[in-house]
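For concreteness, we quote verbatim a single protein encoded this way:
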Amino acid sequence: MPVISNLVYAVTDTTIVATWTTDVSSDSNLSAGGKNAIDNGVAASSTSHQCIVAGLSPSTLYSCVVTSGGASSSPQNVTTAASVTRTPFINAVFESTITQAGFDGGDIHYNFVSNDNKTYMIQDDSHSPASANQQIVTLNEGTLAATSVNTMSSYGLYATENGTDGPAGHTLSNKGNGLFGLNGRLFMFCGRHYIVGSQRQQFYGNIIADNANHGATWNNFGATGTFNATGSPMFPNSGNNSVAPFFFGNNSNWGWVTPVRYAADDGTLGYNTAGNGIDGGNAYVYFAFIEQSNDGADYVYLGRIPRIKLDSLDYTFIQFWVGPTPPSPTDFVNDSNWSGTPSSLTKIITETGHMGWPDIVFIPAANRYVMLAGYRPNLAVTSSTVINVYEGPTPAGPWAKIGTNSSPTLGYYGHTFLHRPVLTNAVTDNISLKMVYSGDFVAGFPTYQPTYSNLILRSTANVVPTFVQAKGTTVALTGVNPTVAYNSNVSSGDLLVVAWRYNGSGAAHISSITDNLADGVSWNIKYDQNDGGGTPIQGGWAYKFCGASAACTLTFNTSGFSMAGLDVCLGEWSGVSTFRGSSAVKVGAAQVITSNTTPALAGDLQIGVVELGAASSGALTATTGYTLRATASNGGTPFCGLADILGSVGGSVTANFNYSGTAVANTSGVGIFIPSPTPSGASDSALFAFGTLYQLNKL
């Protein structure tokens, strides 16, 4: 009889894992409270053993026994962990500024972090480095450059079709639509794609696996021991949509199948991998699937397969969700709510025509799930799409819509989360995630290639910025180091802003701004430029977050030169806490003054500033949703203005002013501030210009 030693039990709230060794090779079995492990007797005989019992109750004592080769351990009491805290999200904010990578073509970029710490990504219909129906690449998350690993030429060139297994004997093409990793292997979820006119559907869902070589060779579930460098497609098949078997329930209509992603692959089955241990995610691989139009299904189903069975591509152990709607976390892990018979399935979400390209990920720390799903409002128009964001406590829901984003002209589709920013999350609010997708493939480049943007998940309501006070001088300030005071006391924590215009002398500038608050917080001068002319006109603006509540007087330090005339606008706002970014542009002689753009998120505070370069008797007004808060004038002539928008709509935003007098040289700028609370780990440098620094630094 084998000798059992080194027995260790590990728990989550609903699973118990046992690991042990034996002195001779033997089988592996575990029971907990009389319930058998899902992998009893499945693993090959060995001297190293592990088994997992799933579907247990939190904070519950179970008597556990392991058995190998007929020898059993002494019963041991093991208590499962307490239920985890699940923090719901109340909204999702899309960052509409995107940056496009230069990799040539491809779409449907499902990805996974493998045990070599690289992000592997599917690319369907790719052009580079060779034409391919489905290839696999690695992603450099610093540069967003992709490197091809395998073009899998046996699956065909870009957009090529074969066979007669489609509707009415139509040809189909091979496409990937999901990627997963465990035990040092990559698993590609793929199917047969059908496109005629406005119809886009996927059939014959199946899974292929590499030979633990990160995509170099691939098998298929019908011949698991045969690996080829160019891939091993099981299809095409002849016949009219009726050839069996299929990996998922012998239903050829289940072609678009995508795994729910948890932690990265660490080279094991993932039983004791941090980040998998919730809702049985360390025991099973869950997958979402649809059976209608890829770009507009009506509902989503859910299935599961034991991790050890996915590793061997054994589809006979697949089960389907047949549980209640809405489910509780306890319902979700209850084995009676799962069936091996693919009939009478429960739809985990129904939204007619809106459930295309589903992608579900687990968000650690918050212990919630987020799903992306989208659709084309008109299936015949590829340049118009809508992507929705849903959140829920389990992969089966209940799902609540928390955000939406429309792309009416570029047709962005196939949104999926980059895996690494999801699995490394450690906060419960203002979570910054990255998405990758493609645009209207009919329009071609540059939209039809990997495209990246940001999504922020919020679990608490965002503070609405509030305007407090503003003041504009009516008499020019003169001399060395002139001063100006706010009308009323300022409050600690508020944002203070000052904008100015003055007659300079040569290269003279304001060297710094100080105040009387003694709060240790410095003023940040964001712009102070010479706008040219025979008598140089200087203009600019600055801000600080106030550290004291008191009367506030500012001093403009001039390093000894005397002001010929300084016009100043002061402003105070509450409810913001971080500077996001700014821009400014000089506009030549003009009456419509428009700054250049800077990126904002929905709800940001926008502050517009303007300075005019020459005297005139016209009026200054703000446009495009701005409210003019202050105008600094001299003898009735406005020289400086300050305006705001308390809640940005997001995207690339500008500041706009109209000047009704004689066209004059002027400068306009926009500053963007973040409503409290701020995204975790945010900083000025990281938040400036999302399309460049923010996108790359946060990966």
Summary: Residues 403 and 532 are 47 Å apart (CA to CA).
